[in-house]
């Protein structure tokens, strides 16, 4: 590995860590703010109130689904950007990649803010179960982002080791790390999908006034 590629690798790691910590720190701050002065849960005993509440919950969950779609697209942008970055080795087009990471960070932050607003609105409307599911999804998404960042770094290490023609160990340690992270990421994605299914069932039940 050349000195220039080593420097780029260090810069890459620093930027990715900054992206992750910025988004998670922003999410935690907004989470704390959304918990302050939260309205008391409203009890909806009247049938008409339950029906109105169900419609409100459906609208809010639809908004969440839109935000979740935006998050999926943002992950795709991050992945495409990282693949393009790796394709520029050994010199690495770090400037372009840094812009990509900045844009993606802003997008993740915007989505997280929107989801927290939906969660707070659900709680203030008495839809505690739905709000709890969204909170669980947010925590899974935080872990997913962290694992995605680590996986990207591990993938880069594998490619650089293979390109450097390392004989001893043959890069097996790096490839093993990639497999491990992919397994962990797959479990988190499965957990998110289970929660999304639970969310659909829950909002359907509230819409019927159960």
Can you describe this structure?
Helix content is 84%, strand content 0%. It is built from five helices and no strands. Helix 2 runs antiparallel to helix 3, helix 2 packs parallel to helix 4 and helix 2 (47-86) runs antiparallel to helix 5. The protein is elongated, with a radius of gyration of 21 Å. Mean pLDDT is 79; it is low at 1-7 and 34-52.
In short:
The chain is mainly α. It has helices spanning 3-35, 47-86, 94-124, 128-163, 172-207. The longest helix is centred in the first third of the chain and has 40 residues, at 47-86.
Strand tally is 0
Helix content: over 70%
Name the beta content range.
under 5%
| Ends distance | 63 Å
